[in-house]
Amino acid sequence: MIHICTTNLNLYLNDKIRSCYLVIGDDAFLLQESIDKICEIAHKKGFTERYTYSLDTNTDWNNIYHLSKSYSLFSRRQIIILILPESGYTTILKNKLLKLSKLLHSDLLLILCAKKLTKEQENSIWYKKISKDGVYINCQTPELHQFPKWISKRAKVMSITLDEQSIQLLCYYYEGNLLALNQIFKLLLILYPDGNFTLSRVQKVVNDNVHFKPYHWIDMLLQGNIKRSWHILQQLKKENYENVFLLHIIQRELILILTLKYQSKGKDLIKLFNQNNVWQYRRPIISTAIKRLSIYKLQLAIQILNKVEVNLKKDYCYIIWPLLEILSILLCSETITKSFINEFTS
């Protein structure tokens, strides 16, 4: 299986059309764009019929198999797109996919789309079968530290010139919102067809369309980045993010960190991470928070969240944002007075 990122997709498509493409990731824009690119190039090479199925218990597999057995001598070359379920990879589904993998031929192009694949699925027989002539396209939303490089590669593909300051500005405004970033690129190309996007040009058209998730805010809190966490919280506030969901996520994270802080005295932190099912990519952030945040500060933060939860139960329309702002200051500040905390938690 060839593994590539979306910025390299054009290169591989122009080289050769493979029998199967796995389009995997959590970014809806990258998923759809990748599928459209594959279909566009394939159409030029004679794959003119396109069928899409969202797999569930009612999927007509006989029809899919019938399409798969049709050769270009009697019909047009075909593209079959299967949207894999987020859960429920039953034995029946595995067997269906295995049977389909055995039917692949030169007049059939298979595209499998999913938010993620587990190790178990990657070790399955059907996956290994399609891996022989397959391409895995990573459609995960770039992390903050990866975003500048991603923008730079994207700009190069679109024949756009960006200076370092412009890249940083775009990172700040469009982290997590690749659709809006792509729209800005298109608008800039219309306004400045020479493709030279200086900082002054970018600033004229950029709007604050950043689309953050709660974990962006939490990560900045745990790292003690007050400026960044405050900005993200204000964006969540503008989007009127679901109160209860936001509250439960931060509660869970802080309780986990407090628990690990108690348990970590004289113990191997890696073992504790394994015992508490902490994701590998989150371990550096959690480790930093364990070292940086005192037990006293964590307890105060949980106390604030408990106050918010009680108020929400009394009044679902209760406005949580002021106390979440206080929480941000508490977790990011090196020193904070007891009187300041008492004013908001009493």
TrEMBL record:
Positions of the DNA polymerase III delta N-terminal domain: 21-140
Pfam family, one: DNA_pol3_delta
Reactions this protein catalyses: DNA(n) + a 2'-deoxyribonucleoside 5'-triphosphate = DNA(n+1) + diphosphate
GO BP of this protein: DNA-templated DNA replication
GO molecular function: DNA binding; DNA-directed DNA polymerase activity
Gene3D superfamilies from the UniProt entry: 1.10.8.60, 1.20.272.10, P-loop containing nucleotide triphosphate hydrolases
UniProt KW keywords: DNA replication, DNA-directed DNA polymerase, Nucleotidyltransferase, Transferase
Recorded GO CC terms: DNA polymerase III complex
InterPro entries for the chain: DNA_pol3_clamp-load_cplx_C, DNA_pol3_delt_C, DNA_pol3_delta_N, DNA_polIII_delta, P-loop_NTPase
Keyword field contains S-adenosyl-L-methionine: no
EC number: 2.7.7.7
Record carries keyword Nucleotidyltransferase: yes
Domain DNA polymerase III subunit delta C-terminal residue range list: 214-336
Family assignment from sequence similarity: Belongs to the DNA polymerase HolA subunit family.
NCBIfam families according to UniProt: holA (TIGR01128)
Record protein name field: DNA polymerase III subunit delta
Organism from which the protein derives: Candidatus Arsenophonus lipoptenae
Gene name of the record: holA
